[in-house]
Amino acid sequence: MKTLQETTVLITGGSRGIGAAIAKRFAAEGVNIVIHYLESHEHANETARMCMALGANVMTISADLRSSEQLTRMRDKLESHGIRPDILVNNGGISHYGMLADVTEQIWDDVMNVNLKGMFLCTQLFMPQMIAQRYGRIINVSSVWGLSGASCEVLYSTTKGGMNAFTKALAKELAPSGVTVNAVAPGVVDTLMMGSFNPEEKAALQQEIPAGRFGSAEEIASLVYFLSLPESSYITGQIISPNGGWHT
């Protein structure tokens, strides 16, 4: 079994928000980092610089999660540099807020393809190496809405519910190979995804949370890090929801 410092983590959607916090958490422990992004080149470079300042080896790479061709090229490019991730964090995703009656087929396809297809493709591409070495960690960043559902977020809730089911099923499939699969399903986290909410809506939402506040990206990153530890090998198939007591 590898020590954590001997491993490499690939974080999809790692340029900012929860993804960037995850990258920095691993960097602080000397893990090799691969930051995936689509278009946020400057944000990815800034996160990479912060990780390197913590002493980590870092590579940034761009690919569209909706494209199997681009993701295959991403894997091949990593392999050409001798990089084979031991830890995959499927964090990349998009949200959609609005009534289901107003959802077009294009919107449906975009949300499904980024949030679900992207997770499927990345997992399928990178799990063979984990199986071959009989060690690996796959961590899917889901949402509390995948557990409880949310009005006006039917698409997002659907993809996260699918992610949770994917996690449970794949965990059983990969457990004999020494690869764990878990999901982290945060409650409300103070990131750019909250940008569509006005101050009054945010205040009302905070009042519903027993902890009286939103979570931080760093708190979510700490849980992802814990699930990546070699000593977390008996935790698999779990959907863990840090949400301040909001949903239990």
TrEMBL record:
Organism per entry: Paenibacillus soyae
Molecular function, one GO term: 3-oxoacyl-[acyl-carrier-protein] reductase (NADPH) activity
PANTHER family: 3-OXOACYL-(ACYL-CARRIER-PROTEIN) REDUCTASE, 3-OXOACYL-[ACYL-CARRIER-PROTEIN] REDUCTASE FABG
Keywords: Oxidoreductase
Pfam families: adh_short_C2 (PF13561)
Gene, per the UniProt record: fabG
GO biological process, one term: monocarboxylic acid metabolic process
Family, per entry: Belongs to the short-chain dehydrogenases/reductases (SDR) family.
NCBIfam families assigned to the protein according to its UniProt record, in alphabetical order: EF_P_mod_YmfI (NF047420), PRK07231.1 (NF005559), PRK12826.1-2 (NF009466)
Enzyme superclass (EC): oxidoreductase
UniProt-recorded name of the protein: 3-oxoacyl-ACP reductase FabG
Annotated InterPro entries: NAD(P)-bd_dom_sf, Sc_DH/Rdtase_CS, SDR, SDR_fam
